[in-house]
Write a structure and sequence with these properties.
36% helix, alpha/beta, Cobalt-precorrin-4 Transmethylase, domain 1, 18% strand, Rossmann fold, four-stranded parallel beta sheet, 317 residues
Length: 317
């Protein structure tokens, strides 16, 4: 990668950015479990969707597996922040695995809503992305009663047995604007549609999308740090592009293409909710090498914290 970033005068840093409370909790759970129970420690799927986080934990003795069948009977397994279905929980219990659940509490909220609506004999329309782990886990809470809606087109076509007994849920990491359009169609087609009193899209996803839209008011180019499989990071790129800014998702500073910087005076920088801050620091340090000044564009303060499960506390059995 070339060091030619001449012409850049300002690096505008979005705030908030990076780790959300659910990611902090999930990573802390794995680190504490490793200290308490030692290696091998197994994690089903990626604990969060970031390559650097996963590789760092691997170096410390964590083994990541795609399926529970890869975990030896009687071992310790951590469920990722994205949640799992009841069937996965039951399989782990049957095999006498020590279970440590790092599911984000906001994802757990959606699971509980699925259980509640299913118990009331409602059909559930779940707005989300097929094959995302969070969606798979949520759909497992009410097999046969949840219909996945991925787009406005899906919303126009989806059918239910009883339009008077239908409920709405959403994946927590979606684009607020895209979801709004899908929900508008569903509400038009199903006037009796019920929804939780509080939005399922998590506070951190909404805050980071609001921040990137603010960046786009002055930045000609926006760089979003995050891994390719990170839903919320990809949504940040989409949000920036919807405002007319050029935007790219990069895993780290080594992914930066110097050609993107040509003719750019202000570069906006943000990071997805699963991207560690040192990746931002490395990128900013690189952009500073040609004298660019750094400013922070803050849209909202975040002070959310989630409690850790008792199983990883030092004094628990």
């Amino acid at each position: 990668m070339s060091d030619d970033v001449a012409g850049i005068r300002t690096v505008a840093l979005a705030a908030p950015r990076g780790f959300c409370a659910g990611v902090v909790r999930a990573v802390d759970i794995v680190e504490l479990a490793l200290e308490k129970f030692g290696a091998p420690l197994y994690v089903r799927k990626e604990i969060v969707h970031n390559r650097h986080v996963v590789e760092g934990l691997k170096r410390r003795g964590v083994t990541f597996v795609d399926e529970l069948a890869e975990v030896p009977d009687g071992s310790t397994v951590v469920f990722s922040a994205h949640g799992v279905s009841p069937a996965v929980h039951a399989d782990a219990e049957r095999r006498r695995l020590r279970i440590i659940d790092a599911t984000c509490p906001l994802v757990t909220k959606v699971h509980l809503e699925a259980v509640r609506y299913s118990g009331k004999d409602y059909e559930i329309l779940l707005v989300g992305h097929r094959q995302h782990e969070e969606v798979e886990g949520t759909m497992g809470e009410a097999p046969g009663r949840i219909r996945l809606v991925e787009s406005v087109e899906d919303a126009e076509l989806v059918q239910v047995d009883d339009p008077n007994r239908v409920a709405l849920l959403t994946q927590t990491t979606l684009s607020v604007e895209d979801t709004k359009n899908i929900v508008a169609v569903l509400k038009r087609r199903f006037p009796a549609l019920e929804a939780p009193s509080k939005d399922d899209i998590c506070y951190a996803t909404q805050n980071r999308q609001m921040a990137v839209r603010e960046l786009a008011k002055t930045a000609q180019l926006i760089l979003v740090i995050g891994s390719a499989n990170s839903s919320n990071s990809n949504r940040l790129v989409e949000e920036a592009r919807m405002t007319g800014a050029r935007a790219y998702l990069i895993d780290d500073v080594s992914s930066l293409d110097p050609a993107w910087l040509e003719g750019v005076e202000t570069v906006g920088v943000t990071s997805g909710a699963s991207a560690p801050e040192f990746l931002v620091e490395n990128l900013v340090a690189h952009l500073r090498t040609r004298g660019a000044r750094v400013t922070e564009v803050r849209t909202v303060e975040e002070n959310v914290r989630f409690a850790l499960p008792s199983i990883v506390q030092p004094d628990s059995p």
